Amino acid sequence: MSDYDDEVEEETPQALDPNIRKQLREAEKARKELDSLRAELNAERREVQFAKVGIPDDGIGKLFRKAYDGEADADSIRKAAEEYGILGGAPAPQSSNQSELEALRRAQGATIGTSGALPDPGQEFMARVNAANSPEEIMSIIQETQTSAPGLGVWSSRGSF
Fold it and tell me: Which of 17, 85, 87, 99 is a Cys-bridge partner for 81, taking CB atoms 3.0 to 4.6 Å apart?
């Protein structure tokens, strides 16, 4: 029985000194802080690399910055950005096709009762008011609109007293 006792000794848990426990807690706290600082430093390095390559901070560049998970060196970032058309690639197709825009204007005109190609009376009124240079000019536009387009609901207290 003594043969087995020598080979398999049960270790009794020994209480650590309070100073050692304090140092262990402080070391763990310092390690966590160091880990967070390393992560922050890596994020800053990554942002510097994106800026160095010329990736924009807004729009599609912002999406690319969030989605990119490759190497954080400038060459890899540049290659991926060119692959996705962010840098030096073909320009993004313009969505304002002229014939499509005209069709949308006609459709809008059909819903509000105008030809669609022309602005409606409310839009014309606001454009004229915005282009006016003096209060007298604005008042003359209002009076003119009251007689020519009473359905707009433009009202002025001038002359009503």
Answer: 87
